[in-house]
Here is the input.
Amino acid sequence: MTEPRVVIVGAGPAGIRAAETLVTAGLRPTVIDEGARAGGQIYRRPPDGFTRPPATLYGSQAGKAVALHTAFDVLVAAGRIVHVPRHSVVALADGVLHAVGDGGGHRIGYDRLILATGATDRLAPVPNWQAPGVYSLGAMQIALKAQGVAMGRRIVLAGSGPLLTLLATQLLKAGAQIAAVLDTAGLRGQIAAFADLAVRPSFALQALAMRARLGRRYHAGVVLEGIEATDSGVTAVRWTDAGGQERRTDCDAVGLGWHLKAETQLADLAGCRFAYDATWAQWLPCADRMGRAGDGVYLAGDGLRLLGADGAEVAGRLAAAACLSDLGLPGPDVAADLKRLDRLERFARGIARAFPWPADQVRALPDDTVLCRCEGITAGAVRETAAYGGAEANRVKSLGRAGMGRCQGRYCQLAAADLIAASGGLAQAGDVGRLRAQAPVRPTPVRAWLEEG
Amino acid sequence: MSGTVFAAPPETSGRLVRLVETGREPVRFVLDGVERMALAGDTVLTAILANAPALRQAEFGPERRAGFCLMGACQDCWIWQEQGPRLRACSTPVADGMRLLTRTREDWP
Ligand code: FES
Here is the structure.
């Protein structure tokens, strides 16, 4: 029998552990990744020539980061993995992936596919968020880790979720000036979710210590009213505090983010089913506990369930184990990992409840707020389209272009769903339907297709 | 296109602040016809925003844009080079001698 071709997309914690598990079973998987060096977003490595040690870059998670990087590098050096760095998979059909890199396009055939595509920041529009100097929280963390820079001289961080306080403490430690940390989650909800968070006491304690370090900069239960800007960028954030007081904080950069949104375009193209998950307030692909999501397709990591880096390592091993067992090959014992997965999921759902999606703030957006940063489509335009075209996301997209820009709705889809649901009198955003992914899932030069071998 | 002007004063100062890792080798590139400095290992986005407040003009609004996600997902950071194809600034390393534009190429239809 010729060796089955197993291809993994993504070299973060999930992709690395999946690859390692397959290699241990004697396979030689191909790993395609957008990064130059394996690690993913959370354990992203700076380019050559940077000198901060892992302890500085990854803090208390340095041991895990180094273990992952080393595991992967050793297998690549030994020729046990085919590593295709700096390539984006932009389409897939009939057992063939289309990957595009600097040198153009490649077709890569597979028998089994493991998608470990991770997540992006989950964004809620704030009036004037299209101004220069507004970034996702993830962007600000990448800037700090991989480039050693702060995106402004006086920064406001706003949104909710674990990254909000983590990034604030990381930036402060590196010498950046943080003017305010504005959490749209109220303290009461955070405390209510604490029972679930206590499944991982060390994590919960660390979060409290971080919060303490932010001191008076941190505000819970705020409503973001808008961002002020001139032609050269952001000048202030307007917000209402938990007591109903209107406030204004001067700044020249704003970081925004509400936890994470699974990156699911390739799973969609691979034919996976999706369901709306009310806890995470987004559509997620359906898979069994191992990550089996269809014929020869396996999902792992934040692209399937938003469990974070530790959960991604576990899910990567499980997906590879499922793949091996479906191929009739011996794999590792998964009992302990399945238990870990349950515990991590309970914790992650607690996090999602503690730091919820700001549906009320989104539904109250003024009509002139730009909802789609790609094409400048406003909240008012989406409401109008939904009113005459019907409360269905794909109709609003084709009639009003929301979700059709070059980010393919990654950053406006959830907010648009809330507006459409409100306009149609529907209770939850999930009722308006899910935007279908279209290939190519990244903008691709026509040249890459013409030259494709 | 316009020739290189040396030592011209910057139009406005850069957006970003270098906090650490500042001992890297310098890299020279040209931004809108003016020679600028970056550091080896910078992305094009970092290199430009260390020298200027924004990357480009938005096509669908009056504002300028300075990138958003820095992870290749939002596509906000595509800019022009004087020659050759456009590039995604957050995922392209800066290289010596690059000639970059924050404006649309004038010969583009
Ligand atoms: S900043 Fe989002 S793709 Fe470059």
